[in-house]
Amino acid sequence: MKDRMLKVLCNVQGATTAEYAVATAAACSAGGVLYKLITSPSMHSLLADLVRFGLRIIF
């Protein structure tokens, strides 16, 4: 009986799947935040200013 209970308690196959699910959700959330940041109007103007500045120095 004790061996069977120990075997059931030490079964961690489901934990691995749950860890992958949490990591996937975190990666999707981070991707969503980055997408919103990159597509924001303030980021567009910042990147445009950076390109203009870089071109002004080169030429």
Could you describe the 3D structure shown?
The protein has 59 residues and is mainly α. The protein has one domain (13-58). 88% of the residues lie in helices and 0% in strands. The protein is built from three helices and no strands. The protein is rod-shaped. The relative contact order is 0.06.
Distance between the termini: 81 Å
Give helix and strand order, one letter per element, not per position: HHH
Low-confidence stretches: none
Q: Quick one: how many beta strands?
A: 0
Provide the gyration radius in Å: 25 Å
Structural class: mainly alpha
- SS field, number of helical segments: 3
Q: Report the β-strand fraction as a percent range.
A: under 5%
Name the overall outline.
rod-shaped
The tally of structural domains comes to 1
Mean pLDDT: 83
The major beta sheet can be summarized as: none
Overall helicity: over 70%
